[in-house]
Amino acid sequence: MIKKDANFVIAPKHGVDWWLAAAAIALAALGVIMVLSASGVMAERVMHNKLYFFKKQALFLCVGIVLMLAVSRIPRKLLYGPVYVYIGFILVLLTATLIPPFSVKAGGARRWMHLGPVLIQPMELAKVVLVFYLAYFYSSKQALVKSFSVGFIPPVVVTLILAAVLLIQPDFGGAVFLGMLFFFMSLVGGTRIIYLAVAGLIGAGAMALLVVSSPYRFKRWFAFLDPFQDPQGTGYQLVQSFYAFGSGQITGVGFGAGKQKLFYLPEAHNDFIMAVIGEELGFIGVSVVLLIVGVIMWRAWRVALAQPDLRDRFTAYGMALVLGIGFLLNLAVVTGCVPPKGVAMPFLSYGGSNMLACFLCVGVLLNLSRSNSA
Fold first, then answer.
1. Which has the closest alpha carbon to 150: 137, 139, 136?
2. Sign (positive/negative) of CA torsion 106, 109, 114, 119?
3. What angle do CA 360, 72, 354 make, to 5 degrees?
C-alpha cells in the first residue's frame, strides 16, 4: 500500500533493491571488458603488458562490489557520521593534491595523490561527501531554509571552498560538477529560486571570465562548436570520437576490432570509452549501455521516493544525482554536446577512484532501500 505525507508520495518498500545492485555490477563488468579492448595496445606498448589496465580494472570491480555490500549493511547512524569531519577530511585530501611531494601531475593538472601505495583522485569522493553534507543541512534546516544568511550562505560557502581547490588544480569540470550538485540539491531542499538564479548567473559569469582569460582555454572550450575547423588541434579528440561512433553503425565493427583506440583517440579507455563501445558494438551496444543506465537511474529515483525520512530522501536523491550527472556529462562530451572536459563515465571508464565512488553511491542507495528499522 502506498503511503502519503504532506509533500511526497511514498512508494512501498521491499527490502534491498537487488535490481539496482545487479544493474550496477553488469555495467561495471561491461566496463572491465571494454577496458581490455580499449587499452590493450597502449598497455602493451607503454607497460609491456596488454592486460595491465584490464587486471587493475577487474580488481577495482571486485573491491567496489565488496565496498557496495559493506556500505549497504552499515547502520544508518554510522553511515551518516559527523558530516563536518567528512568535509574537513576531503578538504585535506583535495589540498594535498596541490603539494608536489604528495600529488601526481598529469595533463597539466594535479588531481591525483598518493595514499600509501595507492593513487587516488579525491574529487570522486568529494562528490559523495558534498551530498552527505547537503542532505544533512537541508533536512535539519527546513525551518530556516528560505532565509539568506542561515539557509543559503552556509552550503554556498562549503561548495565554493571545495570548488576553489579544484579550480587551483586545475579541474574545471570537477568544479562544475560540484556546482551542479549544489544547485539541484538546493532546488529540492527548499532554497528560494531567486537565490539560486542569482548564484547561477554569478557562477556563469565567473566561468566565462575564466574561459576568456586564457586564449588556449577559449579555443579549446569552443572547439566543440566546430571541431573539424581544427581537426589536428583543439578539435582532435572530438573528431576522433565522431569517427568512432560513425564507424560502428548498427552492429559495430566487432569486439576488439576498433581502429580509433590504436593511438588515434586519446583517453580511449577512460573518458572516451563510450566512443570505443560505439565503434566496436555499434548502435546496439550503445543502446544496451543506455538501457542499463536507465535501470540504474530508475531504481535510484525509486529508492529516493520511498524514503519517509527527509534526510534519507535527500541523501538518496543526492547519490542518484552523482551517478546521473556523471552519465549525462560524459555522454554530452563524447557526442560533442558540451565542451570536452575530463568527466569519467560511471562504472565504465578506467579508474579506481571513479569505480569505488560509484559503488559507494550504490551501496548507500541499497542501504536506504532496506527496511527503515535498519
1. 137
2. negative
3. 10
d(CA 151, CA 147): 5
- As a whole number of angstroms, the distance between CA 20 and CA 327 comes to 16
What are 187's three cell numbers? 532546488
Is the distance from CB of 336 to CB of 242 less than 8 angstroms?
A: yes
Give the C-alpha separation, 93 to 86, whole Å. Answer: 11
On the 0-12 / 13-18 / 19+ scale of CB atoms within 10 A, 201 is exposed
Q: Model pTM greater than 0.85?
A: yes
Sheet with 103-106, strands from edge to edge, namely 103-106, 109-115, 118-120
CA diameter of the chain: 62
Are the C-beta atoms of 220 and 234 separated by less than 8 Å? yes
Grid cell 503511503 in the structure block, residue: 3
The per-residue pLDDT string of the chain (374 residues; one tens digit each, 9 = 90 and over) reads 334 444 444 444 457 899 999 999 999 999 999 999 999 888 888 888 999 999 999 999 999 999 999 999 999 888 998 999 999 999 999 998 888 877 777 766 778 887 777 788 999 999 999 999 999 999 998 888 899 988 899 999 999 999 999 988 888 889 999 999 999 999 999 999 999 999 999 988 888 887 788 777 777 777 778 888 888 888 888 999 999 999 999 999 999 889 998 888 887 899 999 999 999 999 999 999 999 999 999 999 999 999 999 999 999 999 999 999 999 999 999 998 888 777 899 999 999 999 999 999 999 999 999 854 33
Cell numbers representing residue 197 in the block? 538564479
Q: Could you give the dihedral angle defined by the CA atoms of residues 85, 87, 93 and 94, in that order, rounded to the nearest 10 degrees?
A: -160
Decide if 319 contacts 80 (C-beta within 8 A). no
